[in-house]
Design brief:
heterodimer; A: 12 helices; B: about 350 residues; alpha/beta; P-loop_NTPase (chain A); ATP-binding (chain A); ABC transporter ATP-binding protein (chain A)
């Protein structure tokens, strides 16, 4: 559990320090930024939640950190990704192979497609282990069984020889997590890890991720469109819109005082399970495509506070209260969630 | 709830749909059946919404398809405006389909990519002869206006629309034949939250304006709370609890409903850890547990639960629960236990 005392950012060097990171997308002759000068830090044993709707750049950002952006059409256009102080951006693909699955791991939304259907789950965990260590196959197998037990798979000695199609969606996602954690990564990037799962199974997986994090101290980047999942899991939150960070804050501060009109709009448009609502307040319009982003604040065509300045000048991401940053010219107006 | 004095738009009585699943082995050793729907009953009044809630594999989509007789029911009755759908001949059924329409989850695959938006919306009208080719366009324009699309978009193709707009086209298409009932099968699950809210508001506005009834199939309890009058919670082909929105949300009786409600992540960091985390996965529908189907995952299961299937029991005239122990459990048991449980497995601080 997290309480307020826990939300202050530790002084230690962040495990992952992303600075002015940009990814461009080329379509024909136009080059448009899909991740636009994004900066954040992730600390040991903490979870950074990245939230936003489709097209906000959250998945491209995570692929960018892993240097897995599909290139072309996308390419890393600038910035730094410092893992324990070392910049990964200039790394070659060969050097990244050493990092991926070892010091930074990733889990994806669809456990069906991230496992290879023709190999047993044990084989796939052992493959990850042996790629990054000098274990014998017997050692790797027993470690694989340990990992399965750790992610809550019952009867791991038997399950280790099962093929993925024999397992349920929730079990598959546990296997994917076991593979991701095989080499004790410094950072785990989880891109919509529970979106494809039912809520009761989602609850199990979120519980698992929380307890694994507190055991291992792995820093987690959790990407989700679901503000409920973010509220439940994250220590710090980044809200993205049209490739940019528009709000960044410790989780309690973000939900207690959402300050960007977009964040407020997102919260107002969720139908809640607790309490009756008169009417949902949708955000009008849609997210602009990357090649057609408006000048100034990217949210201005959908924003009720929009004025001349919003349409011409891009608001910087500025600290409004301690630790709570907002990119809006009108945060004083938008205090109402 | 249905007013007692008028015929409900939809009456579903003991609806059952069993699927025979392939033969096992080369020599056919006996077919197995999946009881995708097993004795489901409910009614929907004019201008009302019943939500069918449950997780994947609970039978909610099969229910939607069987209501429209896109699947032939194994047994049971469906009556639409008092007329038996299950017994209708092919031609009678075609005429009846005008009164019941469906909106699917995925607006990317439910619209023909080579037809314009206007053609898509006009098609059902022409098919059911609600309009002639000549006046169809004017009616399409009116429907576009009704669902919040602009007239200049009429001759565009589906790929030129966003997901939310496509769902508006699908809704306009369903409304084109002035149905009394629309089955909405996860109509907003593929949409972003800000767009989802637009579509939900549209559906509620249309209902207020046109008096259409909805069977709203969803896994999202937040959406369901917002849109429905009545709710049926399904688990492995059976309704385990059914009641008005107020009854279901303020005093859920079935342990599964309670777990489902508690498992929804709330956009509130202080809510953390109040969840009832169910053990295990949904059982294999080919071999559901004996007795109560939920017994293998239920924290309160006792011997009788594993032997005898509980029937729906009236907790109030409008609230029914299929659990042997609903009276003993109270409206929200388990919650405190769950809290203690989670607290025990989690350390006090992530930095520890």
């Amino acid at each position: 559990m997290n309480d307020d005392t826990n939300t202050a950012v530790p002084n230690a060097r962040p495990v992952l320090d992303v600075r002015d990171f940009s990814v461009d997308l080329t379509a024909g002759k136009t080059i448009s930024p899909i991740v636009d000068k994004v900066s954040f830090e992730v600390h040991e044993g903490r979870t950074l939640g990245i939230v936003g709707e489709s097209g906000c750049g959250k998945s491209m950002l995570s692929l960018g950190i892993m240097k897995l952006v599909p290139s072309p059409p996308a390419r890393i256009a600038g910035g730094q990704v410092l893992l324990d102080g070392t910049d990964l951006v200039p790394y070659s693909n060969g050097q990244m192979q050493e990092i991926r699955g070892n010091r930074i791991s990733m889990i994806f939304q669809e456990p069906m497609t991230s496992l290879n259907p023709v190999y047993t789950v044990g084989y796939q965990i052992i493959e990850a282990l042996r790629a990054h260590s000098s274990m014998t196959s017997a050692q790797a197998r027993s470690r694989a069984i340990d990992l399965l037990r750790q992610v809550g798979i019952s009867n791991p000695e038997k399950r280790v020889d099962e093929y993925p199609h024999r397992l349920s969606g929730g079990m598959r996602q546990r296997i994917v997590i076991a593979i991701a954690l095989a080499c004790n990564p410094r950072v785990l990037i989880a891109d919509e890890p529970t979106t494809a799962l039912d809520v009761t199974i989602q609850a199990q997986i979120l519980d698992l991720m929380r307890s694994l994090k507190s055991e291992s101290g792995t820093a987690i980047i959790l990407i989700s469109h679901d503000l409920g999942v973010i509220a439940e899991m994250a220590d710090d939150v980044v809200v993205m819109y049209a490739g940019r960070i528009i709000e960044q804050a410790p989780v309690h501060s973000l939900f207690a005082a959402p300050s960007h009109p977009y964040t407020q709009g997102l919260l107002a448009s969720i139908p809640t399970v607790d309490g009756d609502q008169e009417r949902l307040q949708p955000i009008p319009g849609t997210v602009p495509p990357p090649h057609d982003r408006p000048d100034g604040c990217a949210f201005n065509p959908r924003c009720r506070f929009s004025d001349a300045k919003c349409r011409t000048e891009r608001p910087p991401l500025e600290e409004k209260i301690s630790g709570h940053k907002v990119a809006c010219w009108h945060t004083d107006l938008g205090a109402q969630p | 709830m249905t007013e007692r004095n008028e015929t409900p738009v939809l009456e579903v009585e003991n609806l059952t749909k069993h699927f025979a699943v392939g033969s096992r082995g080369l020599f056919g050793g006996g077919k197995q059946t999946v009881k995708a729907l097993d004795g489901v009953s409910f009614t929907v009044g004019k201008g009302k919404t019943i939500a069918i809630v449950g997780e994947s594999g609970c039978g909610k989509s099969t229910l939607g398809r069987t209501l429209l007789r896109l699947e032939q029911p194994t047994s049971g009755k469906v009556r639409l405006d008092g007329i038996d759908v299950t017994a209708a001949s092919a031609s009678a059924l075609r005429a009846m389909r005008r009164k019941m329409q469906i909106v699917f989850q995925d607006p990317f695959s439910s619209l023909h990519p080579k037809m314009t938006a206007a053609q898509l919306v006009a098609e059902p009208m022409l098919l059911h002869k609600v309009a002639t080719k000549k006046d169809a366009r004017a009616r399409v324009a009116a429907l576009f206006d009704l669902v919040g699309l602009a007239p200049y978009q009429m001759d565009r193709y589906p790929h030129q629309f966003s997901g939310g707009q496509r769902q508006r086209i699908a809704i306009a298409r369903a409304l084109a034949v002035e149905p009394s009932l629309i089955v909405c099968d996860e109509p907003v699950s593929a949409l972003d939250v800000s767009i989802q809210a637009q579509i939900i508001n549209l559906l509620t506005d249309l209902q207020a304006k046109l008096g259409v009834s909805y069977v709203f199939i969803s896994h999202d309890l937040g959406v369901v709370r917002y849109i429905s009058d009545e709710i049926a919670v399904m688990y492995l082909g059976r309704v385990v609890e059914q009641g008005t929105k107020r009854e279901l949300f303020s005093s859920p009786r079935h342990p599964y409903t309670q777990a489902l409600l508690s498992a929804v992540p709330r956009p509130d960091p202080s809510y953390r850890s109040q969840r009832i985390v169910l053990k295990g996965d949904l059982p294999n529908p080919l071999s559901p547990p004996p007795g109560c189907r939920f017994s293998s995952r239920c924290g309160h299961a006792r011997d009788i639960c594993r032997r005898q299937e509980p029937q729906l029991d009236a907790a109030s005239p409008s609230h029914r629960v299929a659990c042997h122990f609903w009276k003993d459990l109270g409206s929200l048991p388990g919650r405190d236990a769950a809290r203690a449980d989670t607290a025990a497995t989690l350390p006090a601080s992530h930095n520890a």
